[in-house]
Structure prediction request, 218 residues.
Amino acid sequence: MTTLDAEARSLQAGTTELESLLDATVDPTVEVSASVQELLADPRVHALLAPVGAAVLTLAVRVDRSPDQEQVHRLWAAPDWTLVLGPDDGEQSTLAELPTDRVPALLSRIVGLGPRKVEWRESARLPVDFVEALLGDDQVARSRALAELGCDRLWQVQVATGPAAPTGGQWTMTVLDGAQGLYELATDVEAPALAPTTSTAVFRAFAELLSTSVVRKG
Prediction:
């Protein structure tokens, strides 16, 4: 079932249908079904999809709580508005727009940031096999590695420049979350390590990312 709410700036439809709609927005030569063609011809849908072509950044946010509880959000951040593709429920997903200056708060909700007791902690080096398990495709191995590290979930924010960006680039934040707090996984160093961080520091990183790269000034 397809539901378009122009006032709320949202579109709910089958997951495959929405992915096909987004593919055709990026590449108009892609062959799509009749139902997707009908959506593409609707000016309200065309307006909703505007951030895809105007995106300065694209983001993929993955939250992994257990082998069978992985959720992925995708975002296209343009200077004024950001388009968000929510996780599917097995059959349907939702596309929705929100003002880009509200994206840091949305990211915080998606990854579950919030107040928590923070105690002093040291950075810890990780064996390569732990890093491979945490970042690999085997969700069972990932859950086992998280448990051994005393964490119950992992989340990633993968960022890439969009079609409207003046230069190219990529950036990834990987955070492990558990009873002892948040740890950022640093893999761009000689020895992979877990560095303690806080909800405040993570939120500031989100805000800086959007304010310096995307949000329109003035």
User: Anything to note?
Assistant: The longest helix spans residues 199-213.
